[in-house]
Write a structure and sequence with these properties.
heterodimer; A: alpha/beta; Glutathione S-transferase Yfyf (Class Pi), Chain A, domain 2; Rossmann fold; 4-stranded parallel sheet; 14 helices; 9% strand; globular; B: mainly alpha; Fumarate Reductase Iron-sulfur Protein, Chain B, domain 2; 2 domains; binds iron/sulfur cluster
Chain lengths: 295, 135
């Protein structure tokens, strides 16, 4: 599908700072495919985590305000960050299904909102609307057998009833997209398990425990690169490889990229603004070797 | 004959507060251990996730509140997705964190976060950390 209207898009705080490379590459991908992303005006932070106690309505007001203002722009809101997606999807589900809480939250944010916006992740849009066929046709530099480990993490998948993204125990969307771009996805365990999330803020040991499990599996599966849609997963999986390599003799470091960075390059982008030099395991030698970037 | 194992009057006030705040019926848990088996941070916890819920079942909420496990839970929801009894354990963990901070204040005061780390962490980690560790 080409020349669709611009899509209302929520970048979120991290994509304006540490994960600017995800924001930039997401815009490249959707422009190359004929559906440019149009940043939602006047957005605020989603809060990064969905509140888990039932009476915590205050932490719902941030995401609710985003949803209400996006509804004024259209019927859909595209999201790139897995965490923002999770918070916005869960809040939307709650506002849609719990009239009492909806009323209270709407009173607080002084906006009318029915819960009738559709929050969609970029991976869903690529799958359902743009179509993998179109992605394939638009490729300028196919990923040609690149052994990618598609990493889903928690936030795209759970709770399945509320986010409704893919099968939480056996997700496929990211693997299918990468295969459409010419890559060879590798099979490995723990692809839908936690990278350590925000635990590093309190305990580096706990964060390492979680990320090591995933990384050991990725490295053993012989992947050339790990691909994610979450800035926190990118950070956790990228940052700890140096530590693991010092602990485990056989550990082979693997670069960690956002799926949009890899896809953007495959669609002909030059990698400008992808901030590849800020990654801990340098992805540039691999990208140069595969003819995907001159960076 | 209907046997009430824990008549309302015998349940501790704290136990009720955990149930109310989390929206979970902790007695639904039959201690199969599936939550702990798949927990990605179980290796560094002092109590396994199923042991935390067992303490709450027994009314030993004080013990649960002093456990490190409630702060190690990453709210990854793996256990909630797999629990055969539909117990949303991360909600119980959050209720316990709230109760603990209600008593002793912020678990991780923002001014104790190192400046170098603040420059390095993704913004969502810092915000997520504030949400989980400050009151
Ligand atoms: S998986 Fe559910 S039922 Fe089994 S021990 Fe954990 S909380 Fe209890
Ligand atoms: S939500 Fe918490 S207790 Fe449950 S599996 Fe994840 S880290 Fe473990």
């Amino acid at each position: 599908m080409q020349n669709m209207e611009a899509l209302p898009y929520f970048p979120g705080c991290t994509l304006k700072q540490r994960a600017a490379g995800l924001d930039r590459s997401a815009r490249d991908v959707f422009s190359a495919l004929g559906s440019p992303l149009a940043e939602l005006p006047g957005w605020n932070c989603c809060g990064a985590t969905f509140p888990l106690t039932v009476e915590n309505l205050l932490d719902l007001t941030g995401p609710a305000r985003i949803l209400a203002s996006a509804r004024a722009e259209g019927t859909r809101l595209a999201v790139a960050c897995a965490a923002c997606y999770n918070v916005l999807r869960r809040t939307n589900h709650l506002l849609r299904t719990d009239a009492d809480k909806r009323e209270k939250v709407c009173l607080f944010i002084e906006s009318e909102y029915d819960g009738d916006l559709e929050v969609v992740h970029l991976l869903e849009l690529l799958h359902r609307e743009i179509g993998y066929g179109h992605v394939r046709q638009a490729l300028r530099r196919p990923l040609e057998g690149l052994r990618v480990a598609a990493y889903y993490g928690c936030l795209l998948l759970r709770p399945a009833v509320e986010v409704g993204f893919d099968d939480p125990e056996d997700p496929v969307l990211l693997d299918q997209l990468l295969a459409a771009a010419g890559a060879a996805p590798v099979s490995y365990p723990h692809r839908g398990e936690c990278c350590g999330g925000y635990l590093a803020v309190r305990s580096e040991e706990a964060a390492l425990e979680a990320s090591k499990r995933v990384l050991t599996a990725v490295s053993a599966a012989g992947a050339d690169v790990v691909v994610t849609s979450c800035p926190l997963c990118q950070y956790n999986l990228d940052r700890r490889q140096g530590i693991i390599a010092r602990q485990e003799a056989g550990f082979r470091p693997v670069p960690v990229l956002y799926f949009t960075q890899l896809l953007g390059l495959a669609l002909g982008a030059d990698g400008e603004g992808y901030r590849l030099d800020e990654h801990y395991v340098d992805p540039r030698p691999l990208l140069r070797e595969r003819g995907l970037a001159d960076v | 004959m209907k046997v009430a194992l824990l008549p309302e009057g015998l349940r501790s006030r704290l136990q009720q507060r955990v149930e109310e705040a989390s929206g979970q019926n902790v007695l639904a848990c039959y201690q199969c251990g599936k939550c702990s088996a798949g927990c990605p941070v179980a290796g560094v916890m002092d109590l396994l996730p199923n042991q935390v819920i067992r303490l709450v079942q027994l009314g030993l909420v004080e013990e649960a509140l002093t456990s490190q496990t409630i702060w190690y839970c990453a709210a990854c929801l793996t256990c909630a997705a797999r629990c055969p009894k539909g117990v949303d354990l991360p909600r119980v963990m959050e209720a316990l964190r709230e109760l603990a901070m209600e008593r002793s204040g912020d678990h991780l005061p923002p001014d104790r976060l190192p400046a170098e780390a603040l420059a390095e962490w993704p913004q969502q980690a810092v915000i997520g950390g504030f949400r989980k560790y400050t009151w």
